[in-house]
């Protein structure tokens, strides 16, 4: 279309395209080296059980410590990892890192049992050997599968629901009991598939939590998701809880678990461990 706008438009357009393309290439080659150079890190964001005020575990979130740019957030580089296929290696690295971390927390014996969730991308789920890869990592790290949780977004599940059912079943057969539907409400779930997926939790997307407790649509959607999840015997986690009034609404409306800056942003492993200990030692349980 730029070409039709005339000569100048065309030139402007291509130079902008070139910048974008070279940024992108630079990112890509940086990412190819990042694993070998040890530039990836895993951060942990606590999940808080509203019934007893205890931290039940965390979500593991990938970070890239770029030598020049500092900490880069996954929104910028996960899509590139996906497109290039690098996500398979990096995804395995995340699983291995998390399993090793959980084992070392368990061995140190200073923390209550924690369940840690790892995000799986669409590309990972498309691999027929995903369940075997996970089983290998569990064995290699000596990790009890009950303490590993997996998150898959609603849109990834619905991309090829029958294939997702099969792969998730295989994963479940490896002893992984916690599988969450991430960003719930932003995809197009077919309720008949929701019933068939071997899942145990829905994560209410942050975009619905944002408007609580004032926006009428967000109120209606959150209440409907909580009611539906509970009648399907699923747990509900609310994502992106930032305000006291959102927390109060979610607690009053029967939401089970919350995650968000109001408890803590994602933090490095040692900081997460300290946070759990501080909470366990304090007598006042509710947030
Ligand atoms: P997600 O799985 O939905 O993770 C939740 C995101 O919300 C995280 O962003 C988290 O930092 C952010 N968040 C949590 N609480 C709050 C809050 O109160 N306010 C705000 N504004 N944000 C909050 P993050 O870490 O940037 O990750 C973005 C996405 O990247 C994740 O969304 C997930 O889809 C993907 N991702 C992260 N790590 C991995 C990974 O290891 N593998 C794969 N495949 N995807 C990952
Ligand atoms: Mg997630
Ligand atoms: Mg999410
Ligand atoms: Mg989200």
Summary, kept brief:
By secondary structure, this protein is α/β, with parallel strands linked by helices. It is 51% helix and 19% strand.
List the helices and strands and how they pair.
Blueprint: H1 7-34, E1 40-49, E2 55-66, E3 70-72, H2 74-84, H3 87-108, E4 115-119, H4 122-126, H5 130-141, E5 148-153, H6 154-159, H7 161-173, E6 178-184, H8 191-196, E7 201-204, H9 206-209, H10 216-231, E8 235-238, H11 244-252, E9 257-258, E10 267-268, H12 269-281
Parallel strand pairs: 2-4, 4-5, 5-6, 6-7, 7-8, 8-9
Antiparallel strand pairs: 1-2, 1-9, 1-10, 2-3
Helix pairs in contact: 1-2, 3-5, 5-7
Bound molecules: ligand C2E and magnesium ion (3 copies).
Protein name: EAL domain-containing protein
Domain EAL: 24-280
Characterise the protein shown here.
The chain has helices at 7-34, 74-84, 87-108, 122-126, 130-141, 154-159, 161-173, 191-196, 206-209, 216-231, 244-252, 269-281, and strands at 40-49, 55-66, 70-72, 115-119, 148-153, 178-184, 201-204, 235-238, 257-258, 267-268. The chain is of the alpha/beta class. It has an eight-stranded mixed barrel. Helix 1 (7-34) crosses helix 2 (74-84) and helix 5 (130-141) runs parallel beside helix 7. It is globular, with a radius of gyration of 21 Å. The model is unreliable at 1-6 (pLDDT under 50). Residues 59, 119, 151, 182 line the site of one magnesium ion. One magnesium ion binds next to strand 6.
